[in-house]
Amino acid sequence: MRKILMIFVLSLFIFSAGFTQDLTAHSNEWDFGKIKQDQIYKHDFVFTNETQVVLNILSVNTSCGCTVSQADKKSLEPGESTIIKAAFNSHGYSGGVQQSIYVNTDNADFSVVKFVIKCEVIK
Fold first, then answer.
1. How many other CB atoms sit within 10 Å of the CB of residue 119?
2. What's the whole-number average pLDDT of the chain?
3. How far, in Å, CA of 81 to CA of 92, rounded?
4. The CATH number of the domain where 74 resides is what?
5. Which of 55, 75, 107, 115 has the least CB density, counted as fewest CB within 10 Å?
6. What pLDDT digit, counting tens, does each position of 18-34 carry?
């Protein structure tokens, strides 16, 4: 019985580890890597309405004035996608940086969706 329980727990652990990898493969993060100071770096995130109803983007905010972002489209049908454009200005930064982009929607279950950009600014 103890052997069966250990196999069950081990199987559950292996299954959950694989599931977590699938979730992180579809990440809302982008790492620019090592970048130069005093430059602007851009990345486009794909934002998909995975609900069964129309999803409206109310606003797109960032965690800092050094990052600007906007959505190409404000209203998404079920299954439809839009681009969330992000631009980071590395002026005045050095070392590791992480900034967030917040997409605010009219859906109570997904009221805020967070995207993250990371980098290491070098002089």
1. 20
2. 83
3. 34
4. 2.60.40.10
5. 75
6. 332 222 224 799 999 99
